[in-house]
Design the sequence.
C-alpha cells in the first residue's frame, strides 16, 4: 500500500513547475500585418472584378453608332454623267501683311468680322517714322531759310551791277568793276538754283517719310470676311520671314465671301464629259440633304501628271450664308441635253445600305433611334447608287454602316 501511494504520488525531483509570462500573450505584429494585407488584396480584387464586369455590361448595353443616308426618289431631273468631290474655295483670299518690318501696336480685327476695302486692320509702332518725317521737314525749312538770304544778296548784287554799268557809261568806273559786279550776280543766281534743288530733294525725303508713316497702317485690300487672325499686339511683323519663328509674316487672312466656288479634281479619262456652263448639283458634307444648283465656270487648261487629274472650277447659282470656305462637297455633273426622266416610284440609296439575309435583300430603316428591318426589291445600279423598286419611300433614313450586326427593333445612335 505504501508502495502504491509512493508510485502514484512520486515525481522526479529535478522537474520544476511550468511558468507563464505576460509577454507570451502578445500578438505577433508581422503576422497581423500579413493577414491585413492579404485581406485588402482580396477586397481590391473583388472591387476590380465588379468594375470590369459593370463596364463590360454597360458597353454591351450601349446602342451602336451607325452612319445613315437618306433615300431619294429617282428620275427627278437630268441624269448625272460624272460624280466628283472637292472643296469650297474663294477666288479672292489674301493674307494681309505689312510692307515694312515693325512692331504691332494695335490689331483692330477679329475672326468673323466683316471689313471694307481700305479699312484699317492694324498699325505698327510709328515712332521712328514720325522722327524721320520731322527731321526731313526741319531740313527743308532750314534750306528754304538760306534760300531767302541768297535772294536778298542777289537783289543787292543786281543793284551793284546797275550802278557799275551806269558809272562805266559816265566814264567814271572801269570795265573790270562791271565784270566783277556781273560775276557776283551770276554767282548768287547759281547758288539760288542749287538751294532750290536742295529744297526739292528735301520735299522728296518728306514724301518718303510720309509714305513710311503710312506704311505703318495696314489696310484691307478688298471687302470680305476675316477668317484668321495671325498676329497679336506686341509681335514683330515683316513682309519677309526674317528672324525665324520670332517674326510674323501675316497679320490677318481675308476672304471675299462673294467669290466662293467649288474646286474639284476630275480624272483626265472623264474630263471630256465636262463642259463650261454645264449644270451641276452640289451637296455639302455638312448638309447632306441640301442639293445646291451650280454650273461649271471654267476648266483649268492643264493636267496634274502626278494624280492624272484636271482641275475644274464650279460657280454656285446663288450663294448662301451656310456655304463656308474649305467645306467638303460632292458634285454631280448633269447631262444638260438629256431628256427629263419621268418621275417613277423607284428609290435610290447607297449600295452599302443593302444587305443579304438568306437570299433576301434587306435594309435597316432608322425611326426614332431604332432600326426597322425591311425587305426591299432591287433594281439597277445607276451612277453608283442602288435602285430600290419596292420597300422604301422617298426620305427614309437607312443605315449605311454599323460596327456590328443589327436586329429588328434594336436601339441605335445616329452619327451626326
Sequence:
Amino acid at each position: 500500500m505504501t508502495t502504491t501511494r509512493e508510485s502514484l504520488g512520486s515525481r522526479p525531483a529535478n522537474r520544476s513547475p511550468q511558468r507563464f509570462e505576460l509577454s507570451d500573450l502578445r500578438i505577433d505584429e508581422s503576422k497581423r500585418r500579413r493577414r491585413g494585407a492579404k485581406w485588402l488584396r482580396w477586397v481590391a480584387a473583388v472591387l476590380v472584378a465588379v468594375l470590369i464586369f459593370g463596364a463590360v455590361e454597360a458597353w454591351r448595353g450601349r446602342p451602336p453608332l451607325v452612319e445613315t443616308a437618306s433615300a431619294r426618289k429617282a428620275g427627278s431631273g437630268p441624269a448625272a454623267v460624272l460624280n466628283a468631290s472637292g472643296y469650297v474655295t474663294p477666288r479672292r483670299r489674301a493674307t494681309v501683311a505689312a510692307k515694312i518690318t515693325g512692331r504691332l501696336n494695335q490689331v483692330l480685327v477679329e475672326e468673323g468680322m466683316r471689313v471694307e476695302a481700305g479699312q484699317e486692320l492694324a498699325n505698327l509702332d510709328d515712332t521712328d517714322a514720325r522722327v524721320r518725317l520731322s527731321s526731313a521737314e526741319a531740313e527743308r525749312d532750314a534750306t528754304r531759310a538760306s534760300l531767302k538770304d541768297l535772294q536778298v544778296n542777289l537783289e543787292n548784287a543786281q543793284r551793284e551791277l546797275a550802278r557799275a554799268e551806269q558809272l562805266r557809261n559816265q566814264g567814271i568806273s572801269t570795265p573790270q568793276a562791271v565784270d566783277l559786279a556781273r560775276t557776283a550776280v551770276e554767282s548768287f543766281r547759281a547758288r539760288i538754283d542749287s538751294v532750290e534743288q536742295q529744297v526739292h530733294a528735301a520735299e522728296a525725303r518728306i514724301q518718303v517719310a510720309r509714305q513710311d508713316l503710312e506704311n505703318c497702317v495696314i489696310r484691307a485690300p478688298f471687302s470680305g470676311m476675316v477668317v484668321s487672325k495671325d498676329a497679336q499686339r506686341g509681335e514683330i511683323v515683316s513682309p519677309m520671314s526674317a528672324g525665324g519663328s520670332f517674326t510674323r509674316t501675316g497679320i490677318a487672312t481675308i476672304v471675299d465671301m462673294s467669290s466662293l466656288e467649288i474646286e474639284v479634281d476630275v480624272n483626265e479619262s472623264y474630263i471630256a464629259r465636262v463642259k463650261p456652263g454645264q449644270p451641276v448639283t452640289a451637296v455639302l458634307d455638312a448638309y447632306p440633304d441640301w442639293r445646291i444648283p451650280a454650273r461649271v465656270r471654267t476648266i483649268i487648261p492643264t493636267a496634274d501628271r502626278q494624280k492624272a487629274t484636271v482641275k475644274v472650277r464650279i460657280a454656285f447659282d446663288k450663294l448662301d450664308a451656310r456655304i463656308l470656305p474649305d467645306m467638303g462637297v460632292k458634285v454631280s455633273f448633269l447631262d444638260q441635253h438629256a431628256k427629263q426622266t419621268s418621275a417613277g416610284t423607284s428609290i435610290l440609296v447607297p449600295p452599302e445600305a443593302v444587305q443579304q439575309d438568306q437570299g433576301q435583300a434587306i435594309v435597316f430603316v432608322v425611326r426614332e433611334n431604332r432600326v426597322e428591318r425591311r425587305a426591299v426589291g432591287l433594281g439597277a445600279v445607276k451612277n453608283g447608287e442602288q435602285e430600290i423598286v419596292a420597300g422604301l419611300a422617298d426620305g427614309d433614313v437607312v443605315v449605311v454602316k454599323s460596327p456590328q450586326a443589327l436586329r429588328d427593333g434594336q436601339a441605335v445612335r445616329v452619327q451626326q
